[in-house]
Amino acid sequence: MTREYRFTFGQFLSQVHLQKKIPPADAILRHTNTVSASRSILVCDTHTRAIALGIRGNLDIPLCVLSPGETAKGWPAVEQILTTAKEGGLGRDGLFIAVGGGVVSDLAAFGASVFMRGCKLCIVSTTLLGMADAALGGKTGFDLLGIKNLVGTFYPAGHIYLPLETLTTLPRREWKSGMAELIKTALLDDGEMVNTLKNLGDEFLRGDLLPKYEEPLFALIAASVKIKGRIVEADPQETGTDRALLNLGHTFAHALESSAGLGNLSHGEAVAWGLVRSGELGHHLGITPRERAVEITGLVRSFGYEIAAPHPKMGDKKNFMTALRGDKKQKAGKLRFVLPASRGALVVEDDLIEPRSLVSLINGEYALCY
Ligand SMILES: NC(=O)c1ccc[n+]([C@@H]2O[C@H](COP(=O)([O-])OP(=O)(O)OC[C@H]3O[C@@H](n4cnc5c(N)ncnc54)[C@H](O)[C@@H]3O)[C@@H](O)[C@H]2O)c1
Questions:
Q1: What tens digit of pLDDT does each residue of 93-123 get?
Q2: Which of 150, 170, 190 is the last residue of a domain?
Q3: Is position 195 within any domain?
Q4: Between 2 and which of 19, 160, 213, 353 could a Cys-Cys bridge form, CB atoms 3.0 to 4.6 Å apart?
Q5: Does some domain include residue 131?
Q6: Strand ranges (DSSP E) for 58-174?
Q7: Which amino acid residue places its CA nearest to atom 20 of ligand 1?
Q8: Tens of pLDDT along 124-154?
């Protein structure tokens, strides 16, 4: 069970290896034309250290072990990575191998993009969210001044490994987080992926059941890679609206995460809730057909996500509205919503939306029967 994909993002070529097994370092060095192990470093966090050690085997590759999670996604982690590279004697032909979820890959990718003005990068993704989204597409970065991904670059990895075997140790909460991004991508395409998702239930979100669900999981990640790859190829640096489509549900999700208090909800739980709100707002505006909005709600609910408006963990609604208006995707003072259309999705700016509608939406007045 292996599939390979190649994408061109501007001047970069990314090769994706979707496979069951975790790749050993000698295979990674060969694929990346890295002449010796001493020209590379492995970057992981304390939860993915065992996977990184397995990849390293008996090769002499320096290991940079970061603290896990979003709270560690700051400048000190970047400095730790750059220091490991310098002390390891890497030059411009050096290779950074990220082993972890989106936090590790965003940090290591940022490090690779600035070390000696850019060295080689490979990502071994170990979370569902990483495989469905973060590993592909070249966005790197870290959080600063309390703002997520305030600093970053576009620097796609040359090789991206998505080894399903790593997911067996992933906690259920992290499965759920990644699942919401898979649902989002499926809604952007409306192809076979939606049907595959409809045949699964929330039992699927248990890592110990991976052997039972290996085939649909493989199919879902493969489809997600193709869809995201195609969107990013069309708009690698998000200068148009194509790449913004990947933010379906995210304007609501970011506001919910912020009003609930960072860490009280996983990103995926917030995205899932945001997808339902996007369908309802789209329906209210005449953009989303009723049956599609109902289908989205049913799909999200089948994976056990909270779909009610207002969300029970939302906290003060005023804080939610403030966070919504402050969403960083504001361009030229406008707030952008990505809403499901008859097929795929559309970007809509807030001058088409009465502020009162947003209040009605989060009060549950646009909820549909299903
Ligand atoms: N670059 C992009 O395009 C992009 C896209 C989406 C999200 N992101 C970023 O990704 C980050 C979220 O990614 P994430 O959800 O993967 O978070 P994460 O990297 O923090 O991983 C989640 C948790 O799972 C642990 N973990 C990872 N792999 C594991 C495994 N195989 N077994 C057990 N535990 C494991 C991690 O240590 C962490 O505690 C955010 O910072 C977000 O900004 C980036």
A1: 999 999 999 999 999 999 999 999 999 999 9
A2: 170
A3: no
A4: 19
A5: yes
A6: 63-66, 95-100, 120-125, 142-144, 147-151, 159-163
A7: 69
A8: 999 999 999 999 999 999 999 878 889 999 9
